[in-house]
Amino acid sequence: MSVNMPSKNAWYFVEERAARGRVLFSLAEVREATGLAGPAARAQLRRIPHVARVTPRGDLFLYIAPEHRAAGAPPFEWWLDACFAHWKEPYYVGLLSAAALLGSSHQAAQTVQVVISTAHTRRDLRVGRLRIELFQRKEVGQVPVFEPSPAHAPLRVSTSGATMIDLVRYARGIGGVGRVREVVGGLAPVTKKASLKEALDHGCGEVTVVQRLGFLLDSIGAGGLASVAETWLLSRRLVPILLAPGGELPASGNAARPWMVIPNVSLEAGI
User: Is the distance from CB of 78 to CB of 23 less than 8 angstroms?
Assistant: First the structure.
């Protein structure tokens, strides 16, 4: 055997790694394990039918086991944390996906909502039928998170209090105020006042977002959580705002107190 011939090929590397439960790998790892040059490693990976790229021209790949091939991707919980760790980017699973993990939302199984830093620019990820929908915000690392248990791999998920705040912040992109109120209503029974207070203390909410959240909490009868928002707002200057941003304030609108919020949309989901 030639001394320049690799001792393993890419197929062997992928199968061996998958047997150890690691479904995400990089081109650099393949090259190191096989001794292949970049073009040769890519060529071998293209010939393996159960391997998919995370991004169209990227160098991260996923092994897709037989039971996951109909979906075209392994469960996101198995590899998402390793993916963002490889990119050295902070993230957390949030919004409707976090609410679903907390038991409140029936988020589509093939769509995962992830919040990343504004310091990075990325398009939504698509692997097979799976879509990773990306939202951006500053100071992602300050948002309180938890790790679901039991878990196949590490995963950062926003806490219920932080999720409530984000749902209001991104209401326009996730179905509107009515949908947010419905999901917040499902989260309220599993959210402790301490969770919402922690998120607010970590700077997760802007004044207008907390005004709207407090209003919605009041509207569903979650008085204890609403009181946390009200206490946080006491030292802030409030001005009248619309429940759904984007329109003009009416000349004689009556703002609901203490939130100073003027309802301008239906509170029913899907309307």
Answer: yes
User: What is the pLDDT confidence band of residue 85, given thresholds at 50, 70 and 90?
Assistant: very high
Residue pair 192/199 in contact by the 8 Å Cβ criterion: no
Is 245 part of any domain? no
The CATH number that applies at residue 89 is 3.30.460
First to last CA, the chain: 70
Whether 211 maps to a domain, the answer reads yes
270: in domain: no
Cα within 13 Å of Cα(257), Cβ side: 1
Domain count, the chain: 2
- pTM, whole model, 2 decimals? 0.91
Instruction: Output the furthest CA–CA distance in the chain (Å, rounded).
Output: 87
Task: Please name the helix (run of DSSP H) or strand (run of DSSP E) that holds residue 215, with its range, or none.
Answer: helix 207-219
| Whether residues 67 and 83 fall in one domain | no
CA-wise closest residue to 96 among 15, 34, 187: 187
pLDDT at residue 270, rounded to an integer = 59
